[in-house]
Amino acid sequence: MASLAHMHKHIVISGAGPVGQTLALLLHQQGIAASDILLLDAKTSEQVRQDARSIALSFGSRQILQSVQAWPIKATRIEQIHVSRRGNFGRSLIAAADYDLPALGYVARYGDIIAPLQQLLAQHKISIKRPTQISAIDEQHDQVTLSLTDGEKISADILIQAEGGIFGEQAQRDQHHDYQQTAVIAHITTSQTIPHRAFERFTEQGPLALLPQEDGYALVWCVRPATAASLLALDDAAFKQALQEAFGGRLGTILSSSPRHAYPLGLNAQNGATARSVKIGNAAQTLHPVAGQGLNLGLRDAVVLAKCLTREPIASALNTFIALRQADRKATIRITDSMAKIFASAPDGSLTQSVLGLGLGMIDLVTPAKKLLAEQMMFGWR
Question: How many domains, the chain?
């Protein structure tokens, strides 16, 4: 048997998160042998399983996970999304019942999404090498040679980069914008709940989202970096009071908050491929979390890429993939980028924000516009 240093695979996927693992299963499902696929990941299996980050999944993402038998998972349904502007007239309510669906989306912990995917990979004997990272890439006309941080080398016909990572730690790409916002995240409980309703509330500094999860809500509060530092420094009582003032009393009193964490926000995207490699998911586009579309867009990337790689020669498959994904990527980036910039661009009470608030109210009155927005958020184009 050849040593790992001389291993050759048809497809190497760098990044064994939900996007990378789903892609591997889709490729195998569509005819690629398990022995021809290898995933690489920087984290240990235990680190991944213990990851308690809250992730928003669209209904379309549920369909994708179902297609590889990785559903059901432990998740909370979102049946309604209430969108409003703090201190201004206007709001929109999007409901799953209006589209004859059981849910608009779901909220799940990262580890709970990964668990069934990892079980399926093991069941199908698709290998993951971890913990390791790529330290150098040498692309030739007929293969890609990867140098790993542990000193080993692997060659592949195709390299698919599906690594995650946060905005502040990534190399700058063609589309790049620092929103000068930081997301403060936590899990909170309240004295009142509206079952399966998510809230997206636009404040002067950015969006504040409360997503129904388990016994309470996953909080994603986007504020300026200095404000984020202040919020992280508050004791629990003061933090709950600050959040209460920003969100209001729709859910009664905020009772508790888990330890808080924060990460910087920005747009960092680049659409393209070489003859032997392509980027998908967060490796291709890091988005503002305002519409919760990051993972969902990445899963749609995986669906299309699997079809291209199993139906066309390598020489044309990657170019076909880029062409097919262009519309969905552009639309999703445009929506999230516009919402992030516009709703945080003017102070509360200004004419601009009053007009924007009125626009939220108008979405409810113009059915085609509301339907188009809802369908893009639920399914995208794939």
Answer: 1
